[in-house]
Amino acid sequence: MSELAEVGDFCPNDSCPDAGKTDEGNIVKYGTTAKGLQRYRCKTCGKTFSENTGTIFYNTGAEEIIETLALIAEGSRVASLSRVKGYKEETIRNWLQQAAEHATEIENVLMSEYEIERGQLDALWSYVGHKEQESGEGEKRSA
Q1: In this structure, are residues 79 and 66 in contact, taking their beta carbons and an 8 Å threshold?
Q2: CA distance 21 to 18
Q3: At what angle do helices 62-73 and 78-85 cross, to 10 degrees?
Q4: Do 51 and 7 touch, CB atoms closer than 8 A?
């Protein structure tokens, strides 16, 4: 199974000869930021980076972004969150897009070694449909 790289496993500097390579031994811990985030240094190119470099959380705290995305998942409108939280609608939409892309990438890695045949997929859909009918959620309601 493909492995997911962790922060500090590779250099994120695109111009570094070891960029994106894991297990090269070129990344060392290099103190912390003023906000308490772990910093790293690449011994190959000399660049430093923090644990949230290249992530959705680079410029804004994780708690704030996660709370905002959770509120969207609960049905809050982007325009409403923009007014209440003080972020531009475009910023919130960008967070949502980045989170969706990241989830897709992780799903691709996690599912890369599984082969599902058509018959298995049909059986799964039949099972899910049957469960919805048992609980009454699959029935259409008339107005």
Answers
A1: no
A2: 5
A3: 150
A4: yes
